[in-house]
Design the sequence.
C-alpha cells in the first residue's frame, strides 16, 4: 500500500523569469512522474499547484493557501530571492518546508528551506579561480539593481582583491533596463581580463547583444579574449538569447548530459534549474520514506543538516553553437552559504593560492 | 561613510552563550553552526577561559554583573544581548555591559549573522574611539609641559609666537608630538644642558 504525499508547486508561468520557472517546474514534474511510475516506492506524490504569475505579492498568500489545510508540508518553488523571503514566514507558521532549486547569493540558512542549487562557494568562487589562471585577475563587474547583483559583485570584489587582482569597474542597471551603452563604453575603456555578468533578464540579453557588437568592432575584445562569466546562465535561457550567448562561460552544478547528484542519480535534465528541482522532489520523496531523527534523515539524503544545503558538483562550461560544452567538472563541494569556512572554498584544493588576511 | 564588511572571518570562531539551557540556546547554536562558528553554552557564569572567545551572547533577562569575568563595559570581545523582557532597566543594564547588538527572544531561524557583523563593527569602532580618546587625553594632560617649554624658549629672547613656532619645528624635526618635544626641552632645561640633543644625536 503506497502512501500519498501531497506536494505544492509554486512557480510563475508568466512574467520576467517564466523560462527559468518553467525549467524548474519541468524538473519537478519529471521527478514526480518517475517516482509515481516506480511500483517499488513507498510513497506516491500528488501535486497541488499555484501560479503567482511573476507577481511578488502573490507568493505568500498562495503558499499559505497550499499549507492551510495541513496536507501539503513540502512546497517546491520560488525563483527569486525576494519571493523566497516572502514565503518563509508562511512556512514558519505552518511548519512547512520550501525546496528552493535556484542558484542564489547565499547568506541564508532558514530551517524551513532546503536549498538544492548552488550558493557562492559552489558557483562564483570556483568560476573566478578558474578564470584567474586562464585570463587574468582584472575583472569588470556588471549586475542588476537587485540582491543577486549587489551581493555577487560584492563577493567578487572581495575575492578578486584577496587574490591580488583588481576591479576595473562596477556598474549596476535598473531591473529590466536594456540601455547598456554607458556600461559598454566603460568596458571598452577599462579593457579588463574578464567581465562578471550578474545582470538578469532583459538587461542581460541586451548586454550580451552589445558585447557581440563590441567584439566585432574592437580587436581587444575579439573572440576568445575577455570572456563574459555567469553564475546563472543555463540552457533554459539559451533559445531566448540566441547568438548573443555564444562564448559565455558559466558555472553550475549541472549542464545537459552530465549526471545528476544525490537522489536524482540516474535521471537526466536539460539545465541545472531542471536538475535541481528534480533532485528536490526526489530528495523530499526519499526523506518521506525514511524514519529516524531529522538530522540523520537529511544527511542520508545528501542534505547537510547544519546548512540545509547540498554538496554539489561544480561544472564550468562555455556556450558553443548554442550548447554548453563542459570545460571542467569537479567533485562535490560542500556548501558554505556564509562564506565563513575557507576549507570549503576552491582555494582549499590549491594551497598555493590560499588567501591569507 | 562606506564600510566594507569582510565575509570570511567567522569560520572557526568561538561564541559563548551565557544563557540557561533552553530552546533559545538551541536555536542560537543551530544558526551559529550553519555559519561555521563553534557555540559553547555556559551557565551560570563565564570563567576565565571566556577571555579568549570571539563573541559572547548573554541573557539580558537573567544575567547580572557578577557572571562576567570583567567589569561592566570592559568585555574584550563583541557582546550580543538576548532580550526577552523589554523593560527599560534591563535594556539599560545590557547597554552598560557593552552590548554591541541584540536579538529578541524567542530566537527563530534568522538574525544571528547580521547580529555578529553589527556587533563586530560596533565593537571595533568603539575600541578605535577609546584608543583615540586615550591618546588625546594623554596629550591634553601635557598642556602645562608645553607652556613651560614655550617659556623656556622665550627665555632665549624670542617672542611667544616665535617660541611656539620653534617648538613645532623641533617636534617635526624629531618626528614626535609637540608634547614629547616639550618634555625634552623641559628636561634639558632642568639638567642645565647647553644644547638639546636630538634622537639622532644632532644639535639643534
Sequence:
Amino acid at each position: 500500500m503506497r502512501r500519498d504525499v501531497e506536494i505544492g508547486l509554486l512557480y510563475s508561468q508568466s512574467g520576467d523569469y517564466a523560462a527559468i520557472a518553467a525549467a524548474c517546474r519541468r524538473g519537478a514534474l519529471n521527478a514526480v512522474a518517475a517516482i509515481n511510475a516506480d511500483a517499488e516506492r513507498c510513497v506516491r506524490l500528488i501535486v497541488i499547484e499555484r501560479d503567482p504569475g511573476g507577481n511578488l505579492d502573490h507568493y505568500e498568500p498562495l503558499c499559505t493557501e497550499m499549507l492551510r489545510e495541513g496536507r501539503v508540508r513540502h512546497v517546491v518553488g520560488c525563483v527569486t530571492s525576494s519571493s523566497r523571503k516572502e514565503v518563509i514566514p508562511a512556512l514558519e507558521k505552518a511548519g512547512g518546508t520550501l525546496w528552493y532549486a535556484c542558484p542564489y547569493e547565499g547568506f541564508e540558512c532558514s530551517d524551513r528551506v532546503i536549498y538544492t542549487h548552488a550558493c557562492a562557494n559552489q558557483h562564483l568562487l570556483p568560476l573566478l579561480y578558474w578564470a584567474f589562471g586562464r585570463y587574468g585577475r582584472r575583472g569588470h563587474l556588471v549586475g542588476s539593481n537587485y540582491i543577486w547583483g549587489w551581493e555577487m559583485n560584492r563577493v567578487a570584489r572581495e575575492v578578486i582583491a584577496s587574490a591580488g587582482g583588481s576591479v576595473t569597474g562596477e556598474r549596476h542597471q535598473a531591473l529590466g533596463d536594456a540601455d547598456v551603452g554607458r556600461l559598454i563604453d566603460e568596458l571598452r575603456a577599462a579593457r579588463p581580463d574578464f567581465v562578471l555578468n550578474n545582470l538578469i533578464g532583459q538587461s542581460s540579453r541586451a548586454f550580451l547583444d552589445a558585447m557581440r557588437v563590441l567584439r566585432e568592432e574592437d580587436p581587444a575584445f575579439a573572440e576568445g579574449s575577455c570572456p563574459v562569466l555567469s553564475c546563472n546562465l543555463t540552457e533554459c535561457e539559451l533559445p531566448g538569447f540566441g547568438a548573443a550567448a555564444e562564448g559565455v562561460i558559466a558555472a553550475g552544478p549541472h549542464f545537459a548530459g552530465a549526471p545528476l547528484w544525490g537522489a536524482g542519480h540516474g535521471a537526466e535534465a536539460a539545465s541545472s534549474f531542471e536538475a535541481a528541482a528534480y533532485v528536490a522532489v526526489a530528495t523530499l520523496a526519499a526523506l518521506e520514506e525514511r524514519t529516524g531523527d531529522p538530522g540523520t534523515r537529511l544527511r542520508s539524503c545528501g542534505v547537510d543538516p547544519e546548512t540545509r544545503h547540498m554538496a554539489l558538483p561544480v561544472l564550468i562550461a562555455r556556450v558553443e553553437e548554442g550548447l554548453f560544452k563542459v570545460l571542467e567538472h569537479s567533485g562535490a563541494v560542500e556548501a558554505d552559504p556564509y562564506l565563513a569556512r575557507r576549507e570549503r572554498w576552491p582555494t582549499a584544493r590549491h594551497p598555493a593560492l590560499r588567501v591569507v588576511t | 561613510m562606506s564600510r566594507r564588511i569582510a565575509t570570511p572571518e567567522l569560520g572557526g570562531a568561538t561564541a559563548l552563550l551565557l544563557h540557561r539551557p533552553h530552546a533559545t540556546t538551541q536555536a542560537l547554536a543551530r544558526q551559529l553552526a550553519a555559519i561555521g562558528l563553534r557555540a559553547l553554552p555556559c551557565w551560570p557564569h563565564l570563567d576565565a577561559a571566556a577571555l579568549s572567545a570571539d563573541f559572547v551572547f548573554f541573557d539580558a533577562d537573567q544575567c547580572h554583573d557578577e557572571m562576567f569575568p570583567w567589569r561592566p563595559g570592559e568585555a574584550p570581545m563583541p557582546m550580543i544581548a538576548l532580550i526577552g523582557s523589554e523593560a527599560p532597566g534591563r535594556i539599560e543594564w545590557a547597554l552598560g555591559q557593552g552590548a554591541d547588538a541584540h536579538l529578541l527572544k524567542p530566537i527563530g531561524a534568522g538574525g544571528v549573522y547580521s547580529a555578529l557583523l553589527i556587533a563586530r563593527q560596533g565593537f571595533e569602532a568603539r575600541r578605535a574611539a577609546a584608543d583615540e580618546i586615550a591618546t588625546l587625553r594623554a596629550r591634553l594632560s601635557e598642556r602645562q609641559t608645553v607652556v613651560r617649554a614655550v617659556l623656556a624658549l622665550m627665555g632665549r629672547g624670542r617672542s611667544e609666537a616665535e617660541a611656539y613656532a620653534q617648538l613645532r619645528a623641533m617636534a617635526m624635526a624629531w618626528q614626535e608630538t609637540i608634547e614629547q618635544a616639550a618634555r625634552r626641552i623641559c628636561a634639558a632645561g632642568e639638567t642645565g644642558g647647553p644644547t638639546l640633543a636630538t634622537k639622532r644625536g644632532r644639535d639643534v
Summary: Chain B has two domains: 14-137, 143-191. The longest strand of chain B covers residues 99-104. Residues 127 and 133 of chain B are 10 Å apart (CA to CA). The domain at 143-191 of chain B is CATH 1.10.10 (Arc Repressor Mutant, subunit A).
